[in-house]
Amino acid sequence: MRIAQIAPLYEAVPPALYGGTERIVAHLADALVELGHDVTLFASREARTKATLVPMRDQAIRLDPSPLKSDLAAHLSMLHEVRRREDLFDILHFHIDLLHFPFFEHLAERTVTTLHGRLDLKDLPAAYRRWPRYPLVSISEQQREPLPFGNWTATIQHGLPPDLYQPPEPSQRGYLAFLGRISPEKRPDRAIALARRAGLPLRIAAKVDAVDRAYFRETIAPLIDQPGIDFIGEISDAQKADFLGNARALLFPIDWPEPFGLVMIEAMACGTPVIAWKGGAVTEVVDHGATGFVVASEDEAIDAVRRLDMLDRRAIRRVFERRFSSQAMAGKYLALYQRLAGQDDLDHPIMQIAGE
């Protein structure tokens, strides 16, 4: 198939540091190329990809040092270029929320729109009712709940290349890990409280967005200025295997309807169990008592820390390989593309495309 992948321009594909959506686009595009398909990626110039790159900006927006830049202008220019080339593709796969909806109605049935973010926002229902023809993909069943009337065609969970992270050699694994972003809904304060109560060190690898700097300064900075709490900032993919693989567990203490939680499967790829607060897609990703523990309180989380040695880290890795590889993700998307484009191959039955 001839497939276009249209990525956001906020981060590189894949991101140099923090970033979820662009990371998934990178892995999906590469996996589809490995399956023998003709993939074109619309992204910023520094993308590292096996697909044919159409560079839409000289640099991804977030790490561009220019003080004056317009994300809207950059994305509108990209959409113009995608539309100019639309006849070259069997499927246009958009990862930019609903920004493209006014421009591609004439071929909406030949598009796929994966929604990567939360959908419980005031203005979204009216927009999705205004443009009902676009086939939508959710990344968890829970993500759909605010928009039950959406034109949902599949739930396809994220995947990562199996060789991206490998479990390191066994070590003492004496610390807990927090990876991601410093913000109120991610609850790093809850992770700190849990680590201190458990009597274990906590290592925090996270970025701080401009919007969250006051929260970091006023709430988190005083908490990390304590023995046993190590804030190391953003880390790259190359650093994650050691960071996650040498941790006793990843803490995922969210306080919001997380649509997926990519960091959870990054931990599983390293054989590391996850202790996650129940909410959002957590119960769809973590197998309680097998790949980690789903908890609803600090007391339950403390009990989970005590039970970590019950879990088989090699089995956690095997679950990742079976459920959350980029090949599994690409196969499910390919089945959807073929169905929408009317190219179902009777010799290769369509795979199950709902999330496991």
Entry summary:
With 356 residues, the protein is α/β, with parallel strands linked by helices. Helix content is 32%, strand content 17%.
Task: Give the topology, please.
Layout: E1 2-6, H1 21-34, E2 38-43, E3 52-55, H2 71-84, E4 91-94, E5 111-114, H3 124-130, E6 136-138, E7 152-155, E8 175-181, H4 188-198, E9 202-207, H5 213-224, E10 229-231, H6 237-245, E11 247-252, H7 262-269, E12 274-277, H8 282-285, E13 292-295, H9 298-306, H10 313-323, H11 326-341
Parallel strand pairs: 1-2, 1-4, 2-3, 4-5, 5-6, 6-7, 8-9, 8-11, 9-10, 11-12, 12-13
Helix pairs in contact: 1-11, 4-9
Account of the 3D structure:
This protein is an alpha/beta fold. It folds into 2 domains: 2-160 and 325-341, Rossmann fold (3-Layer(aba) Sandwich); 175-321, Rossmann fold (3-Layer(aba) Sandwich), CATH 3.40.50. It is 32% helix and 17% strand. The protein has 11 helices and 13 strands. The protein has helices at 21-34, 71-84, 124-130, 188-198, 213-224, 237-245, 262-269, 282-285, 298-306, 313-323, 326-341; strands spanning 2-6, 38-43, 52-55, 91-94, 111-114, 136-138, 152-155, 175-181, 202-207, 229-231, 247-252, 274-277, 292-295. The strands form 2 sheets. Strands 3-2-1-4-5-6-7 form a 7-stranded parallel β-sheet. Strands 10-9-8-11-12-13 form a 6-stranded parallel β-sheet, with helices on both faces. Strand 5, helix 3 and strand 6 form a beta-alpha-beta unit. The chain is globular and about 60 Å long. The chain starts with a strand and ends in a 15-residue tail after the last helix. Residues 168-307 form the Glycosyl transferase family domain. It holds the Pfam family Glyco_transf_4. One of its GO terms (molecular function) is glycosyltransferase activity. InterPro entries: Glyco_trans_1, Glyco_trans_4-like_N.
